[in-house]
Amino acid sequence: MTKKIKLRSLLIGGFFTLLFVVLIAKVYWIQVVDASWLLEQAEEKWETDKIIAPVRGTILDRNNKVLAEEGTAYTVTLNPKMIDGLHAADDIARGLADILKESDVTKATLENKIRELATRKKPDGSDFAVNVEIRNEGWKIDKEKADQVRDFIATMQTRLNKSAKTNIGIGIVEEKKRYYPGETLAAHILGYTNKEGKASLGLELKLDDTLKGVPGMLSYEKDGKGVELPDAKVDFKPAEDGNNVRLTIDKNIQFYLESALAKVNDKWHPKSLTAIAVDPQTMEILGMANTPTFNPNTYWTIKDQSDFKNNAVASRYEPGSTFKIVTLAGTVEEGLFNPNEMYQSGMIRVQDRELHDHNRVGWGKISYLDGLKRSSNVAFVKLGIEKLTQPKLKSYIEKFGFNEKTNIDMPNEVSGLIDMKYPSEYATATYGQGKVVVTAIQQTAAYAAMANGGKLMWPHIVKDILDPKTGKTIQSFAPQVVRQVVSEKTAATVSGYLEQVVSDQDIGTGKLAYMEGYRVAGKTGTANLVLPGEKTYSTNTWVISFIGYAPVEDPKILVTLIADQPDLGGNYHLGGQVLAPAFKDIVGESLQYMGVKSSKQTQMVAKEANKLKVPNFMGMTSANAKAAAKESNLSLEVFGKGEQVVEQFPKPGTEILSTQRIYVAMQNVTEMPLPNLVGRSLRDAVEACSFFKVDCQTSGEGYVSDQTSSGEGEGRSATLTLKPLSDKPAVTGAK
Questions:
Q1: How far apart are the C-alpha atoms of 93 and 90, rounded to whole Å?
Q2: What's the DSSP call for residue 670?
Q3: What's the confidence (pLDDT) of residue 606?
């Protein structure tokens, strides 16, 4: 008995001794061997790190109107475990499908999707999930839909006999998302950020580093229940919000563009439309639009990815007759364009190729100015190849920047493509077909150079970077001159010719763009297309374009419009009707909105402002008289040979307009012949006759087209024949 007790005591003592040894060993292992690893794990559980998201910068128009900003959004979540306990999956699926349904999905499809989410299990299949988001339909929805979901939750609580505080498995989580208050307005400019907050298109992508800001961090220690410990160490790094961006865009002008394109789209059903509005003096983009378009708030509903393409900068096209601006400007700059010189229209042969005017037969023998008004291809082949020559034509194309990108501050810009090798290719390039492929923004910059005095400007759309807290400007982007492509005089002359393309209501191809009250310069374009899979030009498919600016005397807005394959019913003559009404709508509304006075008002104000008194030139040398006139910004003509001025008109002290000519003679006027007055206005001609003491008789109206003189001394007389502006000849007598 005693032995049994001793053995039992020994076994029990040995067991506890062994247990104690194991315990000591475990404590040693934990405190010594695994101590650092366990402490690290514990600290990880004690500490909570929270990423503080920055606020993405706002995008504003030039007048600080919001185009894109951060807004509150709501995500609908489901708790399948709770829903299963209430046996409400079917009712919840039907109710939420009614609220969240979008146009690109059927209600039945969405209902099945929500039912699957409401009954989803954990990945291991052990139990129902507890938190499932309804993507995309219930993800980052607006307040209106969120309120509808809340109403539905209240309805379900009543139906299930639950109190208003009872969770029935439907939740709404408040979040942030990018919001575009104008919806489709300026969509191709702005682009969008996706629901994960990643910039995906347009300026959102291009300026992402500027807009996104820098995330912050909050770190603190907590207990096992997640409550922050008293006196815990807290590390806080505030988020740096993104900078705001102010664009050159004017929200109102952008609206005018898009409204006009919508009308064109409804009537002519083109494959696509593009519009650009700029200030031609600075090449700041005032508006840019395309159709088809999209709503960046619901970007995921777009099926055709080409709808996201900004054709204004990312597409090339054969420009057609709007490209004639290069040939015209080049020949005017080189002194080769005589508007009254005659040529035979209809057809011209370049080596083995016959090139025709758009009506095939032409208009007989006409002047080059009429050729411009009628948009004659033959006229421009003769101007570009025979007068300007191939090398100079190519050099002017390059001067206008068609062989390079404009470097506009927008993504995905492509360059033009200039690849002429043979004489026939140079010939078709003179009127914008063949081996000449350009972009809308390149064309816009070229026409702006004619409107602003010959300067090719850098087109840009970002005006300022702003501090989001103070609103102060961090960085500004000023207009930049790329180069002077033609002289100021040439640009003004070309503008005058382009004005006649619009103002001549008989033969001007741009006559439908004529506007009462404002002087408009512009050019039409109709280019045949080579369709995919074809090798020759289609005979009934075109790209129609119009580029114009106003008012001519001080251009404030230039608009480029392009319609790709409008439905003309096979009749290209309808091309002029496609875009001219849109141009008039856009420019008319914009000029009124900008407060630009009509051309008639401007002329009246200018006349009052430019009244000057004629200086006394009597007794001055020719050089001194010219210097005095230049200082007073007066137009002076000197006649005869002599040491000093002996006669002048008008008399000293006479009040005149700054545009009126002044005549001075260095010898007796009766000893000199009447100068050549061809090309002068009636007023200028009469003044010259009076100064030279010649009795002038006139017939007709407009500008002097012919003159004949007879007699000698003070008995001299002349007959002047005048014709209207459309028949006005070149000035040959003035210098």
A1: 5
A2: G
A3: 46
